[in-house]
Amino acid sequence: MYSEEKLSLSHVSSMEEETLSGCTDGAEIRGFSYTSDAVTLTVSERPKAQVSLWPGEHVFSGETVTLTCDITGGGDTSWQYRWYKDSVIQQNKQQKYMINSVSESEAGKYNCKGTEIRGSSHTSDAVTLTVSALPRATVSVTPDTSVFTGETVTLKCEIHHYSNWRFLWYKSRDKVLSSERYTVNTNTLTIRRVIQSDQDEFWCRGERAGRPSSSQDSDHVTLSVEGSKPKAELTSDTEGSVLTGNTVTLKCLMNHFTGWKFYWYQHTQNTEKTTTDTNSYTIYKAKVSDGGQFWCRAGRGNPVYYTDYSDVLWINVTESPKAVLSIEPDKQLFSGETVTVRCDIQTEQDTKWTYSWTVEKYNRWNTVNQCKTQECKITVNHQHSGNYTCGGKRVNGQNSEKSDAVTLTVSSYQPKTVLRVSPQQWLTEGDSVTLMCEVNRSSTGWTFSWFTQHNLSSGYDLVSDSSGGSKGNYTVSSAALKHTGVYMCRAERGDPVYHTHHSNTQPLWITGGSSSVSLNIRPNRTQHFSSESLSLSCEDHRNSTGWTVRRYTNTLETCPSSSSSSVRSTGTESTCTIRSLITSDTGVYWCESESGHKLHPVNISIHDGDVILDSAVHPVTEGDSLTLHCLYRYKNPSNLRAEFYKDGSEEQNQTTGDTMIISTVSKSHEGFYYCKHPERGASLKSWISVTGFQEEMSGLKMFSFLLAVCPYLLVTVVLVFKCFRLRDETKSDLSDHTNK
């Protein structure tokens, strides 16, 4: 009896064993029966089942697995067994549970228990059965599964788990053994000099002494055998000639790629130029010497199996044309201008190019997105400054040589022109003068225009225009009084037109010969001390009116009318009086008619210093004498020795004390003069004009001229008369002869 079973007499613990002394029949009232014999009751622990696995808890699919249920401590008893897998009862009731060719689906937790007449055992602890797939064999083929007759093929069988494998090879269903062309060496099968009949399916498997004892079969690999020897095809990625400096790539094409090496030949097939693992060969920065005949072929295996040579391919490398970048109107530009950039590529053939533009700024090259054609226009600002290059690309991808970099500089301000006069502003009638207009910080493409203002009532009028580079010249070959005026210039260029600022103003002063109008200056000199008074008057000796004193200080204006000056006109005379001169009164004064005619311009200088130069007011005639004095604001110094200068150079030969005398004036004496005292200082500069010698023809000279000319004139008239008369006589004689 097993513990925990119930008896009708009492409950007996598993460890107790006692003897029952007897029993009586309680039904008999009259007395007790005799006591029974004693019976011994034995109580034992219930046994427990135990599961064992063979060949182990981890098995491989296809193996035979035996599970055994052992019950210990139950005595020599006939047990009946129950098996459970993952708590599900199984049909097997034997002590041994055998699974033939186990599969992965039969993996799980197994336990069992036993039953017999006295009761059942405890259920065993679960045992986990793990079922793994057999390791799989894999086959690789070198050089390829597609081969050509005559090649050598090596098949390799690999099993990546466990060791000590013995490899078996099969062709279709037949086991492969070593032979004349077939060699089995451990895990490799080598087929030499492949023939058409070798085309078939190949596979392998492994066997070993331990568990697992075998592998899964490999996949079947089909070996294809082509009969004809292949021929490589050589191509180039460039159609036509290759330009120097460009890259060209040759390709050696094969229908079957795997395992090939490629052999390249130039000029001759006797020597390999190079060998590559890929089917391409690239020539970088091609030179003319890189051109010529090229071949290729492919090879693979050991020994090497070569394809046939490709057909010859000619690569012609020619000098790359260099792009030339031009910029119009100039490389020095101003913000707001429109620049035209153009890329020219000179070639012998009519080649179509696509163009690209780059600019380098801050050591970085960027693409100029505004330009995608040969020529383009850009309205610039200062951000467009940089080094520009251009280049072209042909349809075949070949690039020209890039142009040299051209630096474009864009200034953010609007340019201003500078006007200069050569040789000087002060001229005598008949002199030549040139106005020169120049644009600062620019060089080419400008067209220049000159403007002048002749009187107060009008603005500036266009005088002339011309084309030039950075300079434009307007020349008056023979100056006349009408050319007196204030001039300025301006430049323009580009499309649309871009204008500079107007230049500074430059006056031209033309002095002439005699006139009925005179300009009288009191004191009669061109330099005056400040705070002194000055009177200028225009007087017409023909008793006409309308002449007025005008002046130019920095603008055209009439004689100022203020508390320190006055204007008075009386009859034929107009007077301008300035009672207290100041330095801003310095300027050119002249007489001007109502029609704008200007006469006798004089440069009046007002000096704050202690020394002025007393010089001729009006132009000096050649042959006359000229006297210059050094005058002082206060009383004369004790030392009257003064120095006189012409155009910056000291004149020493004709000076005495504070006086300089030129006895006979010539055109060479024209220039700027000033004097300088060692203690009092220097005067301002004054311009001395010299006019040519003009001799009036007197009546006596006219009579002498006629006397000299008349005899020759009389002889000429007589000769002409005689010639006409002789011709008439000749005609009369010919007529008489004809009538006879």
Structure notes:
The structure is a single chain. With 740 residues, the chain is mostly beta strands. It contains one helix and 67 strands. The strands form 17 sheets. Strands 4, 6, 7, 9, 10 and 11 form a six-stranded mixed β-sheet that branches. Strands 40, 42, 43, 45, 46 and 47 form a six-stranded mixed β-sheet that branches. The protein has a five-stranded mixed β-sheet with strand order 13-20-19-15-16, with no helix packed on it. A hairpin with a 2-residue loop joins β6 (80-85) and β7. The longest helix is centred in the C-terminal third of the chain and has 41 residues, at 699-739. It is elongated. The relative contact order is 0.05. Residues 5-25, 695-713 and 729-740 have low confidence and may be disordered.
What's a quick, concise take on this entry?
By secondary structure, the protein is mainly beta. The protein contains one helix and 67 strands.
What's the helical proportion of residues?
under 10%
Structural class: mainly beta
Average pLDDT taken over every residue: 85
Q: Write down the Rg.
A: 65 Å
Number of strands: 67
Shape: elongated
Distance between the termini: 204 Å
Features:
disordered C terminus; 67 strands; 740 residues; mainly beta; 6-stranded mixed beta sheet
